[in-house]
Amino acid sequence: MPDEYLVGHWSDRELYPHDPEYSELAFQADGTGWTYWCSWSTAFTVERFRWRETAAGVLEVRLVVLLSGTWSVVDGRTRHEVEDRQPLATTSSPTYRITDEPPTLELDRPLDTDLGGTRFTLLSREAVDPVPAHR
What is this structure's pTM? Predict the structure, then answer.
């Protein structure tokens, strides 16, 4: 049973508002999720993963695919052009904790080397996939 407080869409944008890049994480109740990284240079990556909680505060995260490309804004909406897709087979077991006010997710290490982030605030309990056509 997934931690109901972990399920949701997390971002480091509010923690580092002046950075030229930001990272997001999404944990879905069905055991899937993704990382999202983008920069002002218009580059982005999405890493899809499967996850489960193996003990209280301990995750098993298996990265399954890396998508990368460029993003743009068209008619006020952000669009992502996937230019590369690579299979992944990396598993990690980070620990985490969630603090209150505002809800903040803290990982003991990044899920991967590209994402790099370990602190995220909750955006919403519902996550919107940045590249839904590439599941």
Answer: 0.90
